[in-house]
Each structure stands twice: as C-alpha cells, then as structure tokens.
Amino acid sequence: MLIRASLLSAPALQELHFEADGGLVVEGGFISDAGAFGAVASRHPGLAVEDLRPFWILPGLVDLHAHLPQYEAVAADGLELLPWLERHIFPAEARFADLAHASATARSYLQDALSLGTTTAVLYTTIHADATDAIFREAEACGIRAVIGKTMMDRNAPEALLEDTATSLRTSEELCRTWHGRDGGRLQYAFTPRFAPSCSRELMTGAGRLARDYGAFIQTHLAENLQELAWVHRLFPEADHYADVYRRADLLGARTLLGHGIHLLPPERTLLRELGCSLVHCPSSNAFLQSGTMPLSAWLEEGLSVGLGTDVGAGPSLSMFREMGEACTASKLRRASQQVQTARLGRVAGITDEQKHQIAEALDLEPQPTLDAAGAFYLATRGGARALGLGDRLGALEAGFEADFLVVDVRLSDPFGRISPNPAQALSRLVYRSDPRLVQQAYVRGRRCFHRD
Ligand SMILES: [Zn+2]
Q1: How far is the CA of 167 from the centre of ligand 1 (A)?
Q2: N or C: which end of the chain has fewer CB within 10 A?
Q3: What kind of architecture, by CATH, is found in domain 61-324?
Q4: Cα(318) to centroid of ligand 1, in Å?
Q5: How far does residue 20's CA lie from ligand 1's centre (Å)?
C-alpha cells in the first residue's frame, strides 16, 4: 500500500518533520518507505496509490496511563485524590466483578480511544482477574496496541476491592503468562500495584520479582497528591522518600511507568533517572483533582524520561490531542504563577535580597520554558514510545517503524475549514482546538482499526 498525504511527525522534542506532499509505503505491518511522494513513488513503481489528500498522516498516539474501569465515573468533580477514590472510583471498580459489564465497558472504551487517535494504550484494570482477561480479549479483537495490568491491592481499600497477597500475585502471574507478548508483542502485561498505600511490602516485592522473571512492565502511581505523600510517609517510615518505597521493593527499572510524580524531591529524580524509569505526566487529571503541576520543562532538561497520559477517569477525556493541549496550558499557568509570585516577593519589605533568594529557591520560582504543541506532540508519540522502550520502532513515520498511524482532517481545527500552510500552526490548532471528529482512520501495524463513516 502506498498512501499519498501530508506527513507530520516529531522525531525529537524540538523537531517537527513535515512533508506537504508525502508518500508512505506500508508492508507487513511496517512502514517500509516514507518521504516526498515523487521520490517514494519512483522507488515503488508497481504499487497502487491510495490518495488521501487533503488528509494528513500522523504517528498514532500513545496514552501511557489510564484506568479503563473508571470510564463510567469520568468527570466526577469536586474532590481531591483520596476522597475521590472512596466516593466515585472504588464503587465503579467494584462493578467490574460483573464480567458482562467489564466487557461492554472495554469495548466502548477501546473504540472511543481509537476514534480519538490512541493506537497504544497503557491501562490499569481492577483487582478482578476475569475482568482483566476480558479486557485483554477486547483489546486483542479490536487491534489496538496495549499494555494492561490487573490492579493489585491487599490493604487500605474497601472490602470488595481487597485481595489476599498470595492470590493477587498468583492471578497476576497467570494473566501475564497468558497475555504478555501476545500477537507478536502487540499486547503486553504490566504488574500493577495500585500505589504504595494500598499495597503491602510483600505484594510490591512479589510484583517486582514477577515483572523481572517475565520481562513485563510495572506500572504504579507516585507522588501525585500532598495528602497521599503524608500517608505514604506514615505507612513507610523506613523509606527515605516516596520513590524509595518502590526502590526497596525492587519495582524501579527501565520498564517501570510511574503515573504523575509531580511532587518529587531532587534525590527521587536522580534515582529515577539512574534506574531508567519513566514518569507519566497527566496534566488534565492533575488539574481536575487539584493535585498540582509538574515542572515538566525542568525535568525534561534534567534528562528524566516523560510521556503523557489521560488518566481517565480523573482525566475527563480519552483524547490525547486534548491532553497535549492541557500539557501546554499547564506549563504556561505554572510559568505565569511563578512570575506573579516572584513579583510579589520582590515587593515584600523587611527581608534581605539573600532571604528573598532563599525563599524563591524553596518555592521553586525560577521560571521554566513552556511546552509548545510540537513538544507535546513528541511526548504523545515518540516520547511515549521511548518510555515503553520502543523508541526505535514506534512513534515516527520512518522506514523500519511499525505502521501505527492516523489519518486526520486538519481542516476541522481551523476556524475557516482551511489548511494552514504552516505545519507548526496547524499542529497548534490540532492540540488547542481538538475536534472529536479529527481522526478519520487509525491504523495499528498496518491494520485499520478505526474508520469514520
Ligand atoms: Zn491513575
């Protein structure tokens, strides 16, 4: 198949690649050639051309953190993390004991995610092994690329969502054996201790050991909310900091995805960098639950690996286009707030400049560069793929990469239905004015998994 369309990708953080009249050859699930249409066509004279102009081709989007069972409880507003879990989320998760409900929710969720451009989804389920198996089946059938894990909880949760430690480890291992690496690696398993407060040391240590044994992923939450931080400190007095709780359980490695991590200390960031873990930035969730903002630009500069996640149901939408816009907005609000506080601090009388400097440092008031649409696009494509260890074969439109891509109608984001001649501006509109009808087709490994009628 030789597709003719405009090609837009972000092979690196500050790098957009645009081919106004592009050609993309897809063979055996992979991109075998890409570039200017004339050159590509001349190298493949026998191939039939599928002319998709004026649509654009983008790499498929990678959502690194979301909770599929929370879809029905999405956008339940008004609370911070811990009371929100109790009031809205645990009841929704308890309903996944009903297998028919789990399958139906998974079907809706995965179709909606594909229709919004997510071709790789990293998902938490609930403690229910049967429901997790059903979610894997739905993912297998619809064609999406997915990393999925049964949520593990053996303490500090409602009775209906608690499991004993041995059962949690055994059923997780069984699921991993069944699904990890299925369909040539399209489906993968993530051992998923929910977060430190709902897991015993034994459960976390066991999950770390199993993940290593099977070469599987690990996903959990880290440093999302201040009350959560205080709770972790009380529960694990022996740990140096929150990340150290996971280090002691051997949960941190190159295949570890840590949701949020917005309140991290410098030694925690050093630890994560050294061990090769990735953070998942979920800006709409962080705003929704009043958790805080991540100093994203500073941490990217420090060399931390960061991708993006919707964190549905705390994030209100499955759209990664919207999440990219939220990431840009969050970085702007953070910078604006730093500038306002710096100006106010400058006007305080009765303290020395040295004291003001110390206060500014303690409050982290050094203004950071903001994230632009191109940077967010990178994080949602190749940056996300890198966090999964797939940066050399997923998230770009290059020969040798897996053929996970979107066909989008960029005119829907333009106020006059036109196509901007400036690709950076068109991209900015895609993320700040994302239209739910944007995606016309979504492909995973060359298979069309979504087509808008
Ligand atoms: Zn989450």
Answers
A1: 23
A2: C
A3: Alpha-Beta Barrel (3.20)
A4: 13
A5: 38
Q: What is the DSSP string of 330-376?
A: HHHHHHHHHHHHHHHHHH--SS-HHHHHHHHHHTT-SPPPPP-HHHH
Structure tokens at 56: 């654009």
Taking the CB of residue 401, how many other CB atoms lie within 10 A of it?
Answer: 22
Q: Return the HEC string of 258-270.
A: EEECCCCCHHHHH
Residues in the chain, pLDDT under 70: none
Q: What is the pLDDT of residue 367?
A: 85
The fold of 2-59+395-451 is Urease, subunit C; domain 1 (2.30.40)
Q: Where are the domains of the chain?
A: 2-59+395-451, 61-324
| Distance of CA 127 from the midpoint of ligand 1 (Å) | 14
Count of beta carbons in the 10 Å neighbourhood of residue 354: 8
65 CA distance to ligand 1 centroid (A)?
6
Mean pLDDT of the chain: 96
Question: Ligand 1: distance of its center to the CA of 54 in Å?
Answer: 37
Q: What is the Å distance from ligand 1's center to 66 Cα?
A: 6
> What span, in angstroms and rounded, lies between the C-alpha atoms of 181 and 140?
11
Q: Do domains 2-59+395-451 and 61-324 have the same CATH topology?
A: no
For residue 291, the model assigns a pLDDT of 95
Cβ(431)–Cβ(324) below 8 Å: yes
Q: Which pLDDT score, from 0 to 100, does residue 366 have? A: 87
Q: Please, are residues 191 and 172 in contact by the beta-carbon 8 Å criterion?
A: yes
Asked whether 315 and 116 are in contact (CB, 8 A), the reply is no
Cα–Cα distance measured from residue 450 to residue 439, given in angstroms and rounded to the nearest whole number: 9
pLDDT computed for residue 78 by the predictor: 87
CB distance 204 to 251 below 8 Å:
yes
Closest CA to 62 of 440, 395, 424: 395
